[in-house]
Amino acid sequence: MPASHTKRTTKNAFLVGCLLGLTALPVQEAFVLSPSSSISSRVMNQRTVVNGLNPDSSGELKVDLKKGIDYKPGAADTDLAKRYGHLVGKKVKTVGEAFADFTKELGVTVNALYKNMVTDLVGSTHLIVVNARFQRDPVWSLGMLTALDLLLKNYPEGQEMAGNIVSSLLKSVGIDEADVRKEAADLIAWVEGKSREDIEKVLSGEDTNGPLATVVATIKADEYWMYSRFFGIGLLNIMERIGLEMDKDEIYPVIDNWMGKRIGRSSLTACADSDRYFQIRGKLEMMETMMKEIEIREKKRMASRLEEKAEAALRAAEREEKFQAEVKAEVSTKKEGEEKKE
Q1: CA distance linking residue 187 with residue 140, whole number of Å
Q2: 261 within domain boundaries
Q3: Residue 28, Cβ neighbours under 10 Å: how many?
Q4: Which terminal CB of the chain, N or C, has fewer other CB atoms within 10 Å?
Q5: How does DSSP assign 205-217, residue by residue?
Q6: Which domain holds residue 216?
Q7: Looking at the structure, do residues 135 and 24 belong to the same domain, yes or no?
Q8: Cα(317)–Cα(216) distance, rounded to whole angstroms?
């Protein structure tokens, strides 16, 4: 076999190996392959790249590979791993299991119009609660109940069934409903009579009294504190109770200020959740208005039908009365005729 053919075969095999990640590729060779130079000599003389690693002659490659092989979940030398490493291997209920628990607890089928919404609520709430960084607080509890009250306000089967859905949902994700309602009620009682300035002093840390101050202090002290949508909705509920205009464009800068400047956390998700809340609220209010209009029209139809029935009954009674009068008159006439004959 000619030498030139052997060289080409060797080079082609080497390139295929590089593409498959099986062969060490020189740094320069990763970008340019020059046919005029000897690949084997450059492999020997230059630093190599293997699976993204670029070690020097001291043996970094072996060290990095050993680290990769010896990796253990939650055992890293970081604050996050030290705090939550003990949770490694802990069994976590799946979304499917949570929904199965919800269905079993409720015992009846959710109305078809609400089924997708309730399914999403169960799943999203479960994923929030099982996160190791999640910490329930009064603002979150208030937001949770606010969202459920808004979404289930016009549940077709009535508010008793809506209450059963709330209870089943909270139980399916491992939350005590009584605790949630107490936390929300205590926060509402504290908020009553407060102004925007009062709330913002608490959020800034100037006022350290009350349940909201405790929540803010916890958030600021914990770098791994996790925001969730129900916390944002809880803030919106507070805004409404202190008299702010509940308009999407008016609230956006307020939620941005409260979350970003006052609490010191990213406000992007909270602002997005605020917009989403007002969109859903607007749609539900529109639906409620339509349902009331339908109900009014239906009542008018029923009243009209009852009126028609009453008129028909009255006409029937008049006809019957007239008929009876005619019968009596006819009988009386016959009697008179018989008496005359006698």
Answers
A1: 11
A2: yes
A3: 13
A4: C
A5: TS---SHHHHHHH
A6: 95-284
A7: no
A8: 76
238, part of any domain:
yes
Average pLDDT across the chain, whole number: 82
- Count how many domains the chain has: 2
CA distance 234 to 318: 65
Residue by residue, DSSP assigns 36-65 as TS-HHHHHHHS-EEBTTB---TTTHHHHHH
* Number of alpha carbons in the 13 Å side-chain half-sphere of residue 42: 18
- pTM for this structure? 0.68
Please state, in angstroms and rounded to a whole number, the distance separating the CA atoms of residues 290 and 299. Answer: 14
What gap in Å lies between CA 139 and CA 35, rounded to an integer? 68
Q: Is the same domain home to 188 and 109? A: yes
The answer to whether residue 292 is domain-embedded is no
Q: Are 83 and 224 in contact (CB under 8 A)?
A: yes
Other CB atoms within 10 Å distance of the CB of residue 31: 8
The residues with which 26 forms a beta bridge, in sequence order, are 48
- Summarised one tens digit per residue, pLDDT across range 60-106 is 666 666 666 667 777 888 888 888 888 888 899 999 999 999 999 99
Rg for the chain, CA atoms, rounded: 38
pLDDT score for 63:
61
